[in-house]
Design brief:
Length: about 500
């Protein structure tokens, strides 16, 4: 089932996103229609509805897209934003250098890519919602209709969540494009966008309430919806909206539903994070398939320059990003995540079986794929949400709602579940602070495209010498060349889109 779904996502639906969705476009703000299908002639049965929804999923994996420069995936750019990683391979272009200097220009290719991907996905979501909601009674099973609409409302909320976190105010558009002449869409406030995301997540939750918490095929499930909704509420409680206690409490209650479901479990070992897909600790992932839609991260994160004795069939690539020594050094003493070939590594078995190869420094091991090492092709999924993240959301939300420290038994228990896997000899605390939980998020979720978003919503950083939580504004992380400012927390609007829409400007 898993490989079947991967093939769907990587081939058929890539075409469906262009040929089926009623208003697929080259840009959200400059429409150049490739095809129009009359909705009356398309949404006639369940298979057509499924194909349309599958088409939206193809935009989720755009985080794997890259420029001509080797190892320049969108994933890598987000890991440069926080400044705890460094690039070993030469920069090649200015786009990644700008992330290190916190002076990101409006012609940066990543700035355009994040914007374009999200808006194309949202446009398709709007079309699918209209199409499925307009299906005549009897043309689709009601449970399937709820599932497909739930997935689509979730995905629209998810892509708006990415947009508002990266850009702040953005155009809020909830209907499909019918007139391509109007590109000057007004900006909506960040609060209005977040409120719509909250509504979309709630709507998805209602539609999928009677459906499964998990599935083996990698689709959005009830567990995915509730986990992401908790993250949205936690973000709304923090910056930039600062809605505070009410939203921390809502985030706690939402995340705790996932905890109480018993549908997910922490893996016993960190190795399982690299080998198990769509079950256990994994809540939602980008589905990959080695031959047609491979995962580039194994290759991108290899040692650079490649060692004389190969450890991977992809050895010509690598050096995209790795952990700075300063960040690695502030993990707690005895933390299992710092043990060789858990989260990081300095040596690896040679491909020819002749012994261990010293790589010369630390590299990230989270995305090591033994099959890719042997064949040069990786079909490993990329995790977007995992259970450890949700458990830490429970703990953070409760500690925040209680004023910064909590003695709540459930909050302490979930924090301890994550912490004790890394430090099994450490005793359980009688209270936890927000700062304790944030430290754990930095260490546990490092290099999973979560850290930058956490820093932006909390305005906090992990001090790279003391290991303490400090204010983000004015702090300079190890690989950055300047301290953070309020301005550096948002990407500029893409220059191409500003030329099309004069409303894309900040005060």
């Amino acid at each position: 089932m898993m490989n079947y779904m991967k093939k769907i996502y990587s081939t058929i639906t890539r075409l469906m996103a262009l040929a089926v969705i009623l208003s697929s476009c080259d840009s959200f703000l400059e429409e150049n229609h490739k095809t129009f299908l009359n909705p009356d002639s398309y949404y006639q049965n369940e298979k057509q509805a499924l194909a349309a929804v599958n088409g939206i999923y193809t935009f989720v994996d755009d985080i794997m897209d890259s420029d001509i420069e080797p190892d320049s995936q969108s994933f890598i750019f987000l890991e440069f934003m926080h400044g705890y990683g460094e690039r070993i391979r030469g920069q090649g272009t200015q786009d990644l250098v700008q992330a290190n200097s916190l002076l990101i220009a409006d012609n940066n290719s990543y700035v355009q890519r994040f914007w374009e991907t999200a808006h194309k996905a949202i446009e398709n979501c709007n079309s699918v919602i209209e199409g499925i909601e307009g299906m005549e009674e009897g043309t689709i099973d009601e449970n399937k209709k709820n599932q497909y609409l739930g997935e689509t409302y979730f995905l629209r909320g998810y892509f708006y969540f990415n947009l508002v976190r990266l850009y702040g105010q953005v155009p809020l558009k909830l209907t499909p494009t019918k007139d391509v002449t109007n590109t000057a869409i007004e900006l909506s406030s960040a609060e209005d966008v977040y409120n719509q995301i909250d509504e979309d997540m709630a709507k998805a939750g209602e539609l999928m309430e009677n459906l499964e918490w998990t599935n083996a095929g990698g689709r959005v499930t009830k567990g995915t919806v509730k986990s992401m909704h908790a993250k949205v509420l936690l973000t709304m409680a923090g910056y930039p909206l600062q809605k505070g206690t009410e939203y921390y409490t809502r985030a706690y209650n939402m995340a705790k539903q996932v905890y109480n479901s018993n549908a997910f479990q922490l893996f016993d070992t960190y190795e399982e994070l690299r080998t198990v897909e769509n079950s256990g600790e994994i809540i939602w992932s980008v589905q990959r398939e080695a031959d047609q839609a491979g995962n580039p991260l194994h290759s991108a994160l290899l040692a650079y320059p490649a060692p004389a004795k190969s450890v991977s069939a992809s050895a010509a690539y690598g050096g995209a990003i790795t952990v700075t020594q300063l960040f690695f050094n502030i993990y707690p003493q005895g933390d299992k995540r710092t043990e060789e070939r858990e989260f990081y590594y300095t040596e690896q078995e040679a491909l020819d079986g002749s012994g261990m190869v010293d790589l010369g420094r630390l590299y990230i091991y989270k995305y090591w794929d033994q099959e890719a090492a042997e064949t040069g092709k990786s079909g490993a999924d990329f995790t977007l949400l995992r259970y450890a993240d949700v458990l830490l959301m429970v703990a953070e939300a409760k500690a925040s709602a209680d004023g910064g420290t909590t003695t709540d038994a459930d909050a302490i228990e979930v924090y301890y579940l994550v912490r004790s896997r890394a430090l099994p000899e450490e005793g359980k605390l009688t209270s936890i602070t927000v700062d304790k939980v944030l430290q754990e998020r930095f260490w546990e979720l490092a290099f999973e495209n979560q850290t930058w978003y956490d820093m932006a919503r909390t305005r906090k950083a992990l001090h790279a010498v003391t290991g303490q939580i400090v204010n983000l504004i004015g702090y300079q992380t190890p690989s950055h060349t300047a301290p953070f400012t309020e301005v550096s927390l948002l990407l500029p609007y893409p220059i191409r889109e500003k030329r099309l829409n004069p409303n894309l400007k900040r005060d």
